[in-house]
């Protein structure tokens, strides 16, 4: 019931309050809503290396485990996201993602991916963006190879790139928790039920040394993707 009420409050804010706010005010509401969501699910957030993050626009690059990942990152620092087009069809959360400026990408269309890269490069001149380059969510046990296409946007925009590693752990044992994993044919409600049933999860968000704009300009998207993938794998 508490979750449903929180989602309803979010929908009302997006519908009636957000159009009247500037970006700084919107970010504040997004951050507070995400913090409250984690609190409802009894998930403490621990951020490691927060001092590394710059105030200028940047590309965040994260491994992907759960639908919670977006809210974890927004609870730390609100950004725009790039998500697979299927997310747009999720009940309520898909609509909310659309209202928050999420860029949706069709995974089966190279032409659409090129358009998204150009769009991201323009956004990165004024706002930060987060991507999940594995292309799908995993259990968190390992990191899949990063798809390099979207990294081109950071090179075009001369934006620094920050790898971030997400890990869900058991508070009682410190070991990796499978409860938040959103994989296979699992539905959103089923995943939420798994998280609620656990009541023993904490999430670690680790910021890693950035890949500088100058270095990215002298390299290519494949090298940039490999750097982020290896850095996140090593951190986890």
Any overview of this molecule?
This protein has 236 residues and is of the alpha/beta class. It has nine helices and seven strands. Strands 1-7-6-2-5-3-4 form a seven-stranded mixed beta sheet, sandwiched between helices. Helix 2 packs across helix 3. It is globular, with a radius of gyration of 17 Å. It starts with a helix and ends with a helix. The model has no long low-confidence stretch (mean pLDDT 88).
CATH topology: Glycerol-3-phosphate (1)-acyltransferase
Tell me, what is the CATH class? Alpha Beta
Give, in order, the helices and strands.
HHEEHEHEHEHEHEHH
Rg over CA atoms, rounded to whole Å, is 17 Å
What is the quaternary state of this protein?
single chain
Summarize this structure briefly.
With 236 residues, the chain is α/β, with parallel strands linked by helices. The chain has helices at residues 2-17, 23-40, 68-76, 93-99, 110-123, 152-157, 188-198, 213-217, 221-235, and strands at 45-48, 59-62, 80-84, 103-105, 129-131, 161-170, 201-207. It has a single domain, classed as Glycerol-3-phosphate (1)-acyltransferase (3-Layer(aba) Sandwich), CATH 3.40.1130.
What secondary-structure arrangement, pairings included, does this model have?
Elements: H1 2-17, H2 23-40, E1 45-48, E2 59-62, H3 68-76, E3 80-84, H4 93-99, E4 103-105, H5 110-123, E5 129-131, H6 152-157, E6 161-170, H7 188-198, E7 201-207, H8 213-217, H9 221-235
Parallel strand pairs: 1-7, 2-5, 2-6, 3-4, 3-5
Antiparallel strand pairs: 6-7
Characteristic terms for this protein:
236 residues, alpha/beta, Glycerol-3-phosphate (1)-acyltransferase, seven-stranded mixed beta sheet, 15% strand, globular
């Amino acid at each position: 019931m508490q979750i449903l009420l929180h989602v309803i409050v979010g929908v009302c804010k997006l519908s009636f309050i957000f159009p009247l706010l500037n970006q700084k005010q919107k970010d504040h509401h997004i951050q507070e809503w995400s913090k409250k969501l984690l609190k409802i699910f009894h998930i403490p957030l621990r951020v490691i290396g927060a001092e590394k993050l710059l105030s200028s626009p940047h590309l965040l690059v994260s491994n992907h485990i759960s639908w919670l990942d977006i809210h974890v990152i927004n609870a730390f620092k609100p950004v725009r996201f790039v998500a697979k087009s299927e997310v747009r069809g999720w009940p309520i959360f898909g609509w909310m993602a659309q209202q928050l400026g999420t860029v949706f990408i069709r995974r089966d269309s190279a032409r659409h991916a090129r358009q998204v890269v150009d769009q991201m490069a323009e956004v990165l001149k004024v706002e930060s963006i987060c991507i999940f380059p594995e292309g799908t969510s995993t259990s968190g046990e390992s990191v899949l190879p990063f798809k390099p296409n979207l990294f081109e946007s950071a090179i075009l925009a001369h934006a620094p790139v920050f790898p971030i590693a997400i890990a869900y752990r058991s508070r009682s044992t410190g070991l990796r928790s499978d409860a938040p994993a959103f994989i296979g044919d699992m539905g959103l409600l089923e995943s939420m039920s798994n998280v609620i049933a656990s009541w023993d999860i904490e999430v670690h968000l680790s910021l890693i040394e950035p890949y500088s704009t100058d270095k990215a300009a002298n390299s290519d998207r494949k090298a940039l993707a490999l750097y982020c993938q290896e850095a996140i794998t090593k951190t986890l």
